[in-house]
Amino acid sequence: MRKTIVATLLMITFLSLSSSAYAARGEVVLKKSGCDYYLVLTSKGYALLEWYGGNDPNRGDILVGDYESYGMKDIYNLTSDQETRAWVEDYFLSKSSAIEKYYDKCD
Question: What is the pTM of this model?
Protein backbone atom coordinates (compact mmCIF):
# COMPACT_ATOMS: atom_id res chain seq x y z
CA MET A 1 0.00 0.00 0.00
CA ARG A 2 2.75 2.43 0.95
CA LYS A 3 4.67 1.70 -2.30
CA THR A 4 1.52 2.47 -4.29
CA ILE A 5 1.11 5.84 -2.58
CA VAL A 6 4.77 6.73 -3.12
CA ALA A 7 4.59 5.66 -6.78
CA THR A 8 1.44 7.72 -7.30
CA LEU A 9 3.02 10.81 -5.71
CA LEU A 10 6.14 10.41 -7.84
CA MET A 11 4.03 10.12 -10.99
CA ILE A 12 2.03 13.25 -10.12
CA THR A 13 5.24 15.16 -9.43
CA PHE A 14 6.80 13.99 -12.71
CA LEU A 15 3.71 14.91 -14.74
CA SER A 16 3.46 18.36 -13.20
CA LEU A 17 7.15 19.05 -13.86
CA SER A 18 7.00 17.78 -17.43
CA SER A 19 3.98 19.93 -18.34
CA SER A 20 5.60 23.07 -16.95
CA ALA A 21 8.75 22.35 -18.98
CA TYR A 22 6.80 23.16 -22.14
CA ALA A 23 5.77 26.62 -20.98
CA ALA A 24 7.48 29.46 -22.79
CA ARG A 25 8.21 32.82 -21.20
CA GLY A 26 8.10 36.04 -23.16
CA GLU A 27 7.37 39.76 -23.14
CA VAL A 28 4.62 41.60 -25.00
CA VAL A 29 6.59 43.96 -27.26
CA LEU A 30 3.90 45.30 -29.61
CA LYS A 31 0.23 45.99 -28.85
CA LYS A 32 -1.85 48.71 -30.50
CA SER A 33 -5.04 50.04 -28.94
CA GLY A 34 -8.11 48.81 -30.80
CA CYS A 35 -6.40 45.68 -32.14
CA ASP A 36 -6.78 42.20 -30.62
CA TYR A 37 -3.39 41.02 -31.90
CA TYR A 38 -0.08 41.40 -30.08
CA LEU A 39 3.53 40.26 -30.43
CA VAL A 40 5.42 38.34 -27.77
CA LEU A 41 9.22 38.11 -27.82
CA THR A 42 10.52 34.73 -26.62
CA SER A 43 13.98 33.19 -26.50
CA LYS A 44 13.17 31.47 -29.84
CA GLY A 45 11.75 34.46 -31.72
CA TYR A 46 8.45 36.29 -31.92
CA ALA A 47 4.93 34.91 -31.55
CA LEU A 48 1.82 36.55 -33.01
CA LEU A 49 -1.19 36.08 -30.74
CA GLU A 50 -4.84 37.11 -30.97
CA TRP A 51 -6.59 37.94 -27.69
CA TYR A 52 -9.77 35.90 -27.01
CA GLY A 53 -10.70 36.79 -23.45
CA GLY A 54 -9.54 37.10 -19.89
CA ASN A 55 -6.79 39.55 -19.07
CA ASP A 56 -5.94 41.81 -22.03
CA PRO A 57 -2.12 41.99 -22.01
CA ASN A 58 -0.26 45.29 -22.35
CA ARG A 59 3.14 46.13 -23.76
CA GLY A 60 5.83 45.09 -21.28
CA ASP A 61 3.76 42.31 -19.67
CA ILE A 62 5.52 39.00 -19.05
CA LEU A 63 3.53 35.96 -20.24
CA VAL A 64 4.03 32.25 -19.58
CA GLY A 65 2.35 29.50 -21.56
CA ASP A 66 2.36 27.31 -24.63
CA TYR A 67 2.48 29.94 -27.35
CA GLU A 68 5.11 28.08 -29.34
CA SER A 69 2.54 25.90 -31.12
CA TYR A 70 -0.61 26.77 -33.08
CA GLY A 71 -4.11 26.96 -31.65
CA MET A 72 -6.18 28.25 -28.75
CA LYS A 73 -4.15 28.57 -25.55
CA ASP A 74 -4.61 29.56 -21.93
CA ILE A 75 -1.69 31.80 -21.02
CA TYR A 76 -0.70 33.26 -17.67
CA ASN A 77 0.20 36.94 -17.37
CA LEU A 78 2.80 37.16 -14.61
CA THR A 79 2.69 40.96 -14.59
CA SER A 80 -1.02 41.21 -13.80
CA ASP A 81 -1.25 37.82 -12.05
CA GLN A 82 -4.19 36.80 -14.28
CA GLU A 83 -5.01 34.34 -17.05
CA THR A 84 -5.65 35.26 -20.65
CA ARG A 85 -6.90 33.24 -23.61
CA ALA A 86 -5.28 33.64 -27.02
CA TRP A 87 -5.11 32.10 -30.47
CA VAL A 88 -1.51 31.50 -31.57
CA GLU A 89 -1.47 32.73 -35.17
CA ASP A 90 2.26 32.13 -35.72
CA TYR A 91 5.47 31.62 -33.76
CA PHE A 92 9.29 31.38 -34.08
CA LEU A 93 9.14 34.48 -36.29
CA SER A 94 12.00 36.83 -37.08
CA LYS A 95 11.54 40.44 -36.03
CA SER A 96 10.85 41.68 -39.57
CA SER A 97 8.42 38.84 -40.34
CA ALA A 98 6.61 39.34 -37.03
CA ILE A 99 6.16 43.08 -37.59
CA GLU A 100 4.94 42.51 -41.16
CA LYS A 101 2.39 39.89 -40.06
CA TYR A 102 1.28 42.07 -37.15
CA TYR A 103 0.59 45.10 -39.34
CA ASP A 104 -1.27 42.90 -41.86
CA LYS A 105 -3.68 42.14 -39.00
CA CYS A 106 -3.69 45.57 -37.35
CA ASP A 107 -3.63 48.07 -40.17
Answer: 0.79
Angle at 60 between CA 55 and CA 63, to 5 degrees: 50
**Exposure on the CB side of residue 102, measured as CA atoms within 13 A:** 25
Residue 89's alpha-carbon distances to 7, 12, 70, 94, 105, in angstroms, are: 40, 32, 6, 14, 10
Q: Cα–Cα distances in Å, from 9 out to 17, 19, 20, 21, 22? A: 12, 16, 17, 18, 21
- List, for residues 44-72, the tens digit of each pLDDT value: 999 999 999 999 999 999 999 998 899 99
Residues 64 and 27: beta-carbon distance below 8 Å? no
Give residue limits of the domains in the chain.
23-105
